[in-house]
Amino acid sequence: MIWSAIFVLSLGAYLFKIVGAMVGARREKSKEIEAFLLLLPPALLSSLIALQTFELNGTLVLDARVVGVATGGVIAYCRRPFYEVVVFSALVTAIIRQFG
Predict the structure, then answer these.
(1) d(Cα 47, Cα 96) in Å, to the nearest integer?
(2) CA–CA distance from 70 to each of 48, 57, 65, 75, 93 (Å)?
(3) pTM of this prediction?
(4) Is the separation of the CB atoms in 22 and 14 below 8 Å?
(5) DSSP 53-73
(6) DSSP one-letter code for 78
(7) Sign (positive/negative) of CA torsion 15, 16, 17, 20?
(8) 71 neighbors 92 (Cβ within 8 angstroms)
(9) Which burial class, exposed, middle or buried, applies to 72 when counting CB atoms under 10 A from its CB (0-12, 13-18, 19+)?
(10) What pLDDT, in 10s, does the model give residues 37-60?
């Protein structure tokens, strides 16, 4: 039962992507829509990161995750490689959780 539901939902999500790509490729988009669509993925990703960082069970939480994300932001701003961003963010978060 559960596997059939997973399969049906996965198939539906895949079909939505195919239909969106087929319909979107045939239509002409204005410059305003193009600019909006280019800004949409970073905005959605930023909102997901903010929710995962500052929210727990519907309440505002300021814990080690906030420090880890801030560390990652600073290291990424310094244009360090991605693996350094991930490693240092995880390291700072672990240290804060261990001793904080």
Answers:
(1) 24
(2) 15, 22, 8, 9, 10
(3) 0.60
(4) no
(5) HHEETTEE--SHHHHHHHHHH
(6) T
(7) positive
(8) yes
(9) buried
(10) 899 999 999 999 899 889 888 888
